[in-house]
Amino acid sequence: MGADQAYIWRIVSSVALDYIRKQRVRQDHARKVKESGVQKANPNPEEILIRNEHTELGFKAIFMMSEECRTFWQLWLVDGLSQSEVAQKFKITKNNLRQKIRTCREKLREIMKKLTGED
Fold first, then answer.
1. Which of 8-22, 63-77, 92-106 has the highest mean pLDDT?
2. Which are the contacts of 104, defined by CB distance < 8 A and separation ≥ 6?
3. Neighbours of 118 (CB within 10 A)
4. For 8-60, what is each residue's pLDDT tens digit?
5. 77 Cβ partners below 8 Å, 6+ apart?
6. What are the domain boundaries of the chain?
């Protein structure tokens, strides 16, 4: 993978994972803003387009992953469970969970390569 491709991959994966990690925070913030009646300043169209493209690509990649991988990400990154807690839920060892997460991460990279045309 070239430096440019690695940079693009890093941006897209960061955006996707940021969304997953911060989903609840964003929902809480949006609710508070709505309740307070304060309107957020409008971002410029280019920012909106870039954000939407990255989010869409990230979602496509995540939904193309196996349900097991999505569940690991959900419990660990969104719900905020520790790796030990996730391992207990699946009745596997923490080391086994780490290996599964590594495998899921590799699958996500492969999917992102396909979606961005890096084959």
1. 92-106
2. 65, 66, 68, 69, 72, 73
3. 15
4. 666 677 777 666 766 667 667 677 766 766 555 667 777 777 777 877 887 88
5. 17, 20, 21
6. 3-116
As a whole number of angstroms, the distance between CA 89 and CA 86 comes to: 5
Which H helix or E strand runs over 82?
none
Tokens of 7: 């940079």
Quote the tokens at residue 65. Answer: 């992953």
Inter-residue contact 65 to 111 (CB < 8 Å): yes
Secondary-structure breakdown of the chain: helix, strand, coil percentages, each rounded to the nearest 5: 80, 0, 20
**How many Å is the Cα radius of gyration of the chain?**
17
- pLDDT tens, position by position, 2-13: 666 666 666 677
Q: What is the pTM of this model?
A: 0.54
pLDDT of residue 29: 67
- The one-letter amino acid code at 35 reads E
